[in-house]
Amino acid sequence: MFILDAARVLTRPDTHFCDRNMQSNDASPGTDEPYFARIPFDKVYHEGPNGGDSSITAHRCAEVLPTSPLVLEDCLRAVLLRSDPERETLLHLLGSERARWAGLCHVSEALKVFEKRHSFVHEVGLERDGVVFTLNRRFDGRGVAIQVGVWDNAGHQVANFAYADVPAAPAEGRWICRQEFADGLYRVRIDIEGHLAFESLMPLGPALF
Predict the structure, then answer these.
(1) Fewer CB within 10 A of the terminal residue: the chain, N end or C end?
(2) Strand pairing of 175-178 and 130-135?
(3) Of the candidates 95, 99, 90, which has an alpha carbon nearest to the alpha carbon of residue 121?
(4) Alpha carbon of 204 to those of 40, 123, 135, 174, 194: distances in Å?
(5) Residue ranges of the domains in the chain?
(6) Angstrom distance (rounded) from CA 123 to CA 183
(7) pLDDT surpassing 50 at residue 209
(8) Regarding the domain with residue range 121-204, which homologous superfamily does it belong to in the CATH classification?
(9) What is the pTM (predicted TM-score) of this model?
């Protein structure tokens, strides 16, 4: 989740607003203060059932429409993620830009930020006898399809595990894909239901001081 400086975005001269989803047939955006003042924010930020009032559903999808692309350096205050492995995945994917954004990336445990209803990688580690990880339990208790791949520093895949239906929380508390690994630097990737859930470089060996 991107946390943006609202004042910086809302006061840009090229920012438009819409009191509902722009894909709605009756959507009519505006740019001035009178239009902004008419947005029914009690419905935009409404929580719970709508009691049959379809306008609440419509206004929950109100939009802020800055000119694209939005320059993040001007307004990004933080990026919130659900777990440390997800944070590490984002930073890994940023590549050479990692150091530039790392200080803004934080893990949030607050349920007001993420409902955490579905599976994601909660913890992951690489040990000499395998890849260990824990998953967030799905809200409905269903199992998930998991694929785990490991590549060495030369780019050769040295491990590949696939499970069609595993529970998020095994009796032992964590999953382990058993395989012997020598000391070195490895790229570890975990997919859940065919989608990237974790990827990063992981060293294995004595700690260096």
Answers:
(1) C
(2) antiparallel
(3) 90
(4) 55, 16, 22, 19, 27
(5) 2-65, 121-204
(6) 21
(7) no
(8) Macroglobulin (MG2) domain (2.60.40.1930)
(9) 0.84
pLDDT tens-digit map of 46-76? 999 999 999 999 999 999 999 989 989 889 9
Q: Which residues pair with 98 in a beta bridge?
A: none
Three-class SS of 110-149: CCCCCCCCCCCEEEEEEECCEEEEEECCCCCCCCEEEEEE
Residue at token pair 């006061």:
11
Tell me if 40 sits within 8 A of 18, measured CB to CB. no
Tokens of 75: 């307004």
Beta bridge partners of 163: 146
- Integer Cα distance of 48 and 149 in angstroms: 41
For the chain, what percent of residues have pLDDT higher than 90?
76
Q: How many CB atoms lie within 10 A of CB 148?
A: 22
Average pLDDT value for residue range 154-173:
87
